[in-house]
Amino acid sequence: MSISNRIADLAHEATEWRRDFHQHPELLFDLPRTSAIVAEKLRAFGCDEVVTGIGRSGVVALIHGSQAGTGKVIGLRSDMDALPLTEITGLAHASRVPGMMHACGHDGHMAMLLGAAKYLAETRNFAGTAALVFQPAEEGGGGAREMIADGMMERFGIQEIYGMHNGIDPAGTFSVRGGPTSAAADRIHILVEGKGGHGAMPHLAADTILAAAQIVIAIQSVVSRNVDPLEAAVVSIGSLNAGHANNVIPHTAELRGTVRTLTKDVQALVEARLREVVEKTAETFGAKATFTYIYGCPMVVNHATEAEHAALAAAAIVGVDNVRRDKPPTMGAEDFSFMLEARPGCMVGIGQGGAFGVHHPAYDFNDEIIPIGISYWAKLVEIRLAA
Ligand code: NI
What we know:
By secondary structure, the protein is α/β, with parallel strands linked by helices. The chain folds into two domains: 264 residues, 3-Layer(aba) Sandwich (Aminopeptidase); 114 residues, Alpha-Beta Plaits, CATH 3.30.70.360. The protein has ten helices and 16 strands. The strands form four sheets. An eight-stranded mixed β-sheet has the order 1-2-4-3-5-16-6-15, sandwiched between helices. The protein has a four-stranded antiparallel β-sheet with strand order 10-12-8-13, with helices on one face. Nickel (II) ion binds next to loops.
């Protein structure tokens, strides 16, 4: 492990910041305390510029290197929001807000990027500019998309963008992969309209429940029969609502679900086939289905060159044997994908171990990896912005 004395010192402070964020979680874009503390610290560290209110509650800080160079700008991103969950850890630094919890480690991500900001503002041992991006609403709010729509990339001249997320791999390891690492998360909504009637006289009705049930079964053939078996896709119906009484055939039924894919081709195929299967299946039962496909967060696709830069920085801290390059993608989603659609870049996984994964009420961020995360960010800047 290659951690400088200065960063080891900084990690103690950063642990205090992390625990303070943990005690005061805030959700989505509604981050008055969190973003104010982030901005205040960035100013206190002597960052050259600190801008608030990007993408509603996002914060961006610029730090210029002291060496002459090409004026290159790279972005480093942390998310800031917590989850609507009640914590059960019983720790001294547990959430003080019932129903809200930093259960995804975004408190740790902020502490690590703030630690890197302090270190980089002190040392400035690079040429060009580091843009530190603190993003709201990662957990389902599309905060990355909002920051980009607000002109973040152009305004700060960001040319490459890097992200980091903790996971249950052992502490002291990273995972870095070019190509897709997490899925596009889209939503489907299906409204089935038949002909309501008396439960005793089905021949006079068009049974929406029977049609809806057949739709649930038939759409599973899209993944198993239409998608190439060597590609990945998931279709899950999470909600099916129809009817209220024993003896009434309801006039409508409503289904909602999620679709996960790792490539644009598979995404387009699944959307087209779902529409066909849903509409034709309803027709078969004398009903009519209105199918709506809602695009959510796109797939995270790391750019190959930037993945190599990230792997180099990670290996400089934990050694090449502790940088996993072959970790399979996940069908979960991450809105850093919007940033990777706007600029080349890479999101890495930082291992933190632990018995509970993210989004669990007993989860806690592992403070022991704070110096590793700070060192990674600092090294990445010094490698990418070398004079
Ligand atoms: Ni997260």
